[in-house]
Amino acid sequence: MAINKDKNIKSKPWYFTIEVPENGERKRKKFRGFKTKKEAEIAQRELLAELGKGLDLDASKTLYRDFMRDYLNDKKTSVKSSTLATYSALVNNHIIPALGNLPLSDIKPRHIQNLYNDLFESGHLADENIQKVHSIINESLNKAAGWDMIIKNPTAIVDRPKARKKEMLYWSEEESHKFLAVARNDRYYHAFLLALTTGMRQGEILGLRWKDVDFERRTISIVQILSHNGKEFQTGAKTDSGSRSIGVDRSTIAELRGLQKRCREEKINDKRIYQDNDLVICTTVGTPLSPRNLNRSFSRLIENNVDIKKIRFHDLRHTHVVMLLKARENNKRIADRMGWSSVKMIDRYAHIMPDMQQETADLFGAVFYKSGAETGAAKEVN
């Protein structure tokens, strides 16, 4: 178990040698690439300690690309197909090209940080997806460490990339009504209406069935969503807290009654080709509406009207939250309605708070000084 210096190598010349059991025999293995003798000594001690705990030295030489193939295969049993598709795209398009040819034991924090830097500077991925890349690498190498394939997870000392704050777009009440007036005769008007009046996610709206709408109690139950690619329905919601019941105002319920009547008529008129999926929002023959087609309709309606500020469909959800905040709704109720697991999500709307704080101050002033004036008047009478 010697530590030596290779005089023929100028950069990182130090290496150490240890003996390990292999097929019933003791074999010597060299580990190179250390700048100083001290670095080699530390690495040797750590490796020997981990071997004593059960580190599989042969497994540590597994290429990361091969390990990630098994990692994604294992994920099939624990995540939704849409999530698996996202993971696979990030792994195959971004992680493997950068780290795939490295053995597990050779992956260093610097390699991981360089990948984050490249993704950040290239702009090829949104900041939120760079954070997902971090989560995938961290989880996978935690798994490798747990299986004694590496000594420790190098991601543990790499900072999670931060998401740069983006301007949150939303419509005012006036802009919302202006858009609804423009969209009134569009086939998918009710999808836009539900987004504005309930804050439902797009997948929740496109997965909504008539049996999930309680007209008497004026509630909608979120129990099914349509995948992002529009090809499959998924039981439940995006998150556990997303499975919820949402109260609906009377005007929106009245609109839904009208839509239900139209759906019944379409079913009768085209019963030979109509596919009854019980969907609230669907095509003329009852099939699921592709999220892409809904987005196209939404963009077209906005682009054809210069007076309407351009936003994304998802921003209708933000618009709903802003309206609730301006109506001074309780934060916990807002979180429950939106399907958030924590009220901390409200912090994303902090930029709206200054105007609301001024309104609060004015309301307090009106009450406080009115009370003071009345007290002063009473003293004068006495």
Give a nutshell description of this structure.
The protein has helices spanning 37-53, 64-75, 81-99, 109-122, 127-146, 173-183, 189-198, 202-207, 250-269, 291-303, 315-326, 331-338, 353-381, and strands at 3-5, 14-22, 25-34, 213-214, 219-221, 224-226, 233-235, 245-247. It is mostly helical and 382 residues long.
Give the helices and strands, then pairings:
Elements: E1 3-5, E2 14-22, E3 25-34, H1 37-53, H2 64-75, H3 81-99, H4 109-122, H5 127-146, H6 173-183, H7 189-198, H8 202-207, E4 213-214, E5 219-221, E6 224-226, E7 233-235, E8 245-247, H9 250-269, H10 291-303, H11 315-326, H12 331-338, H13 353-381
Antiparallel strand pairs: 1-2, 2-3, 4-5, 5-8, 6-7
Helix pairs in contact: 2-3, 3-4, 3-5, 4-5, 7-9, 7-11
Descriptive overview:
The chain is mostly helical and about 375 residues long. The chain has 3 domains: about 5-50; about 65-145, DNA polymerase, domain 1; about 175-355, Intergrase catalytic core (hpI Integrase, Chain A), CATH 1.10.443. The chain contains 13 helices and 8 strands. The model has no long low-confidence stretch (mean pLDDT about 90). GO terms for molecular function: DNA binding. Pfam families: Arm-DNA-bind_4 (PF14657), Phage_int_SAM_3 (PF14659), Phage_integrase (PF00589). This is Integrase.
CATH architecture of the largest domain: Orthogonal Bundle
Number of helices: 13
Q: Give the class from helix and strand content and strand pairing.
A: mainly alpha
Total domain modules: 3
How would you classify the quaternary structure? single chain
**Silhouette:** elongated
CATH topology of the largest domain: hpI Integrase, Chain A
Following the backbone from N to C, one meets helices and strands in this order, namely EEEHHHHHHHHEEEEEHHHHH
Global Rg:
30 Å
Query: Unreliable runs, pLDDT <50, ≥5 residues?
Result: none
CATH superfamily of the largest domain: Intergrase catalytic core
Straight-line distance between termini: 100 Å
